[in-house]
Amino acid sequence: MNREHLILMEPVRLALQGIVDRMQSRMMRAAYSSIAREGGDCAAAVFLPDGRLLAQARSLPLLLGSLIPAIAGLLQRCPVDAMAEGDAWLMNDPWSGGTHLPDLIVVRPVFSDGAVIALAAAILHHQDVGGIAAGSIPPNATEIYQEGLRIPPVRWRAKGEPDPGIEALLTANSRTPGNLLGDLNAQWSAVSLGASEMAALRARTGAPFEAVCGALLAQSERLTREALRAAPDGEWRWQDQLDGDGISDTPVRIAVSLRKRGDALTIDFTGSSPQTRGPVNASPSSMMSAILFFMRSLAPQAPNNAGCLAPATWVLPEGSVVNPNLPAAVNARTATLKLACNAMLGAWSSGASRDPLAANAGVATVLSLSGARADGQRWLLTEIIASGAGASAHGEGTSGVSTDVGNARNTPIEVIESEAPLRVHGYAIREASGGAGRFTGGHGVRRVYELLEGQGSVSYRGERHVSRARGSHGGGDGAPSAARIERSDGRVDVLPARARVDWSAGDRLVIETAGGGAWGEAMPRH
Hints:
Blueprint lengths: L2 H28 L3 H4 L4 E6 L5 E4 L4 H4 L2 H11 L10 E4 L11 E10 L2 E11 L28 E5 L2 E2 L1 H9 L4 H29 L3 H21 L4 E9 L9 E10 L2 E5 L15 H15 L13 E4 L17 H19 L13 E8 L5 E8 L27 H7 L2 E9 L13 E8 L3 E7 L20 E5 L5 E3 L3 E7 L3 E5 L14
Parallel strand pairs: 10-11
Antiparallel strand pairs: 1-2, 1-5, 3-4, 3-6, 4-5, 6-7, 8-9, 9-10, 12-13, 12-16, 14-15, 15-20, 16-19, 17-18, 17-20
Helix pairs in contact: 1-6, 1-7, 4-8, 5-6, 8-9
């Protein structure tokens, strides 16, 4: 690479990061659904025409990593030579690179001088895409067909105009068709901004653009390999478990082995449970989010692109909970990905890391509340509730925060109460839920909702009701999660880690998320 290219690397890197962050911001500002607008359950990225991730927004790792196989699945269906200016492609199929069905992916090709120079992508968790439960996250689903409308890569827009047939099909299968179209248009706005700014960046940079992009990928790979070389060679294992699959209480094992040699790493999930009947299965495209997060954590100073994946190979056994066969149910894969992250971080911390950590809580509770008001008007609200981070040798874990692949924000109480007939009676840090030790684990969160009118349904996807986040170096484990419905007549229904239940006006739903593990034994008091 010549001197001109080297000089351009940092300005182009910063420009790329600015583009994807502005795509993310525009999508959130334009979104109709509170889970995207307030919670930030969406992500944006740009790719080279061959499918390599070039830059990603500083947003939600849970969605960012999965865009890599989504673009690969699209390119198998439609090579860039067949794309035209103003096209947009739409998909959500987990066996074509998608995650779970509410996560709709929009991709727009970026043209400069008549050729595709990049692909702009946006993914957003939609409020409802059909299926047997409002919110499209049924915790009791046993096959993908119960979870909503499954979409392989299809051309949604041509010359900028949406296909009315596709939009009619989408809205006919959603309980919130207005939100669905509004959120799709927010994604279109984001990828259109990305296309415009990428074309402008290419014009400013000129002919060296492609070479500089390649150099940024190579730089990310080089820095990641340097981080690996600095760690000792070895093999380290970690195992965790889910509290059942939503159908059975039998624990679901998540096992990983990290084999590090020189500047290369193998991530092997052999030993994880076979695919489950319930919806905790994670497709390989979903697992990419956990793997990309872990590899990025090794060299966080590296450019934010796919170069960090070059030193890694991964093994996801076919027919397992981390690589299920069609028609497995997958809507509750978040818990699987979070425990997969915990497993990789735990294995690395046990042998290779100079800064060992206690386990994060590994919980991102996804709650979908729906119902009908007294006048019969239907409503639907989905939100994500955080938990606690693990402690380290440097200090206590953070409380009430999304960790690892999670980076979603809490939905403000004012928004909840304005969009649904709910009153939030409590929102607080769940004291004493973090593990006890020299440095305490981060505490979970407590939320209390009351249904004010009519009848409603609760789809609850939690985790750690039985298992606990492990402490490190003698530190205590975090407290488990808990959830219950306190009926207006005094009865109390305790909920398992995954549940679907009805409630009535006057009933209260109490959610308490798990705490993170502590680090070190508690210091004796004198």
